[in-house]
Amino acid sequence: MQHFSLRAVTVALFAAWGVAQADVERDLDSHEHGAASLNLVVDGNRVFVEFSSPWANVAGFEHAPSTQEQHAVVDKALADLADADALMVFTGTRCARVDSQVSSTMGEGGSEHDHHDEHKEHE
């Protein structure tokens, strides 16, 4: 039986952050601040990790980067997330990463959070 360290699972959150962004329209339309989702599946000798989170949780803002500092934050976050070998550690196993993917809706123009006006109506 394989055991995965808490660190490996926690770090896996970030390793596959963008993989769950497949349904971008749904993510852009509605999301909960401070919430993220993690799916971890063990199928035989394969482990699949999928993490999805609004950009505010990762970068501290959810609009397209507009300053050099914000671009640097996004670039570093994407680089960190793409470095799956540094993020995921499976101890006591002969596991090797086969593939990792990171995708992002950040910087595609517009805002990831277009319902600010809705918040104003409820305040």
User: Count of DSSP helices?
Assistant: 6
The tally of beta strands, per DSSP, is 2
Number of domains: 1
Structural class: alpha+beta
In N-to-C order, the SSE pattern is HHEEHHHH
- Specify the biggest β-sheet: 2 strands, antiparallel
Strand line-up in the sheet with most strands: 1-2
Please state the CA-atom Rg, rounded to the nearest Å: 16 Å
In short:
The chain is built from six helices and two strands; from the N terminus they run H-H-E-E-H-H-H-H. The protein is α+β, with helices and mostly antiparallel strands. A two-stranded antiparallel ribbon has the order 1-2.
Characterise the protein shown here.
The chain has six helices and two strands. The chain has 123 residues and is of the alpha+beta class. It has a two-stranded antiparallel sheet with strand order 1-2. The protein has one domain.
Give a topology summary.
Layout: H1 6-15, H2 24-29, E1 37-43, E2 46-52, H3 55-59, H4 68-82, H5 84-87, H6 116-122
Antiparallel strand pairs: 1-2
What labels describe this entry?
123 residues, alpha+beta, two-stranded antiparallel ribbon, globular, disordered C terminus
